[in-house]
Amino acid sequence: MIRSVRKFTGLTAAGVVLVGCGASGGPVSAPTPSSPRPATSATRDTTPTMAPGPGGHTPVFMRAKAARGAADRTVALTFDADMTADQGPRAERGERFDNPALIKALRTLKVPSTVFMTGRWAEEYPAQAKAIGSDPLFEIANHSYSHHAFSSPCYGLPEIGAEDMLADVRRAFAAFKKAGARNVVPYFRFPGGCYDDSALRVLAPAGVTAVQWDVVSGDAFATDADAVAEQVLSRVGPGSLVVMHCTRSAAPVTEEAVRRIVPELRRRGYRFVKVSELMR
């Protein structure tokens, strides 16, 4: 879950995961951003993706191009539904990794949103995954199956081996399908936002666009909804992509913060969109 500032592969991706923060061993060169293009597979006919980066690497999207200008005040709120592969026992003991009240608030406020879901979360809450993935207000994107780190160190997350990365991403998509989610898009968010050139190369066969962010909400472990709302409101600009969380136990004030953020941004003339629209 995201709560501080870190640099990934030469890109400034403000963020941190639910677990603590670790420093990467020197930044590596980021791929040159590519222009969005329509996806070509049968399930992605209307969903924009980005052309592969240099060497055919997985492309990375962080926000809409500034060239869209202040006249196009769009913003995408995104929510990471985090659950690692080994947190099942904690869920059995009553810890809640879901946040139905947040989803209800987004519906009430009519806020189109993208939920970056782990496959383990979809397995734990299949009815909710199906409901979110069947509601045209939302789209589900991939946040890995295991929520393990795709580069290390990454805030204390267990590391997944390069040989298992592609299968992990595909396993998450399979979990969404098994749950009955229909509105699934070919986007992927690295756990913790941590990645390197090796991970971008390994995931290329998955055909996904990696989605980062330019505004970190600070909702991870936060207890002050006003502070979260102020952090978002002070940093958002036209085309921004905001990272928040849909994990009740570790981001307990997100719903309250959203109820303050949304009316104020609308008052400022912003329009909420899903990542698939922001990428067009």
Automatic annotation (TrEMBL):
<dbReference type="Pfam" id="PF01522">
    <property type="entry name" value="Polysacc_deac_1"/>
</dbReference>
<feature type="region of interest" description="Disordered">
    <location>
        <begin position="26"/>
        <end position="58"/>
    </location>
</feature>
<dbReference type="InterPro" id="IPR050248">
    <property type="entry name" value="Polysacc_deacetylase_ArnD"/>
</dbReference>
<feature type="compositionally biased region" description="Low complexity">
    <location>
        <begin position="29"/>
        <end position="44"/>
    </location>
</feature>
<dbReference type="InterPro" id="IPR011330">
    <property type="entry name" value="Glyco_hydro/deAcase_b/a-brl"/>
</dbReference>
<dbReference type="InterPro" id="IPR002509">
    <property type="entry name" value="NODB_dom"/>
</dbReference>
<feature type="domain" description="NodB homology">
    <location>
        <begin position="73"/>
        <end position="273"/>
    </location>
</feature>
<protein>
    <submittedName>
        <fullName>Polysaccharide deacetylase family protein</fullName>
    </submittedName>
</protein>
